[in-house]
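Q: Sequence in, structure out?
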Amino acid sequence: MMIQRPYPFLTALALCALLVGLTGAAEAKEFKFTARELAQGKGAVEMGDIEIWLPNAVVIDQKEDLTEPLWFVLENPTGVDHEFSVGGLFMYATPEVVPFLTEMDPITRQVLEDNIMMVPIRIKIKAGETKKIRVALVGIAGERSHGASYRFFCPTHKDIRVSGFIFVD
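A: Exactly. Output:
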């Protein structure tokens, strides 16, 4: 004897709606930066082979982009290790990014919320690696930050002096 549930379609539909609702609440704004290698004679500055973070400028809109968590995705598909640093902006420390600054709950192995610290954005991205950092809104949100600009660059290759800017609108 087979037992049928009265409304399997409605149950499945309700479950889908719940899952879509949960994922919608967890949305975040991401800006992706990619390290690129430019062959000699192909870049604006002809200094041989140079690496550069692209895009070289991004605009963060306070009204649109700051309604949800803000993330930078840093991708390094090159064969050389790089760093990504933004003067004046901060990120939330995580065990993956800054392991010695965060405390973990010994049972759940989760970062204790009270111990999440903000540190200046400066992170090493090894060759072939991608990292995602959550950006603190200090210096980006609020009337005083409107119109601000922040320079980003690779401190490892600072002698090349190739960088970009993050603008707050």
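The CA atoms of residues 35 and 53 lie 4 Å apart.
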